[in-house]
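Handout, page 2. Input:
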Amino acid sequence: MSMNTNRFTEKSQEAVESAVATAQRNANAQVEPEHLLLALLNQTDGVVPQVLSKLNIAVGALIRQATDELNRLARVHGDSLQVVASSRLQNVIRRAYDELGQFGDEFVSTEHLLLSLLANAGAAAQRILQQGGLTRDNLLAALREVRGTQRVTSPTPEGTYAALDQYGRNLTDLARRGKLDPV
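Output:
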């Protein structure tokens, strides 16, 4: 399956590879947006589950729905199954590049793919995300929390997200919650 992933982050490339592997395992002739959605949801160390958890969206329920949707796809039997990207998936990838431009980023990250899936009108992936409670507005708000002002300028940006949560204490937040000892 050929798709230009030169400007994808490592996590985005992993998601595409996982989507292809799932399509092959399920004997699907085409890799669909729902394969990509499942791959993004299953990236336990990725940004997508982290953002969805911030929004109190049940990732497990979304995984079950995406899996159910994939089980409805036609299966092809044969010795040499060659999977290809469906036109719907190619549209998702193109739209992800548009999202990249809106953020001023240099690489397509998993959040660009998620935003693109959410904007994919009429697709099962969009329906699953919306039924789970995801909207473009709440997704963008959660991304601002996780990313801060960081831009995606390298193939491995995830390590720079939420640095305060990982390596420090947010004193302003602690003071607001009354958890800070007076000096």
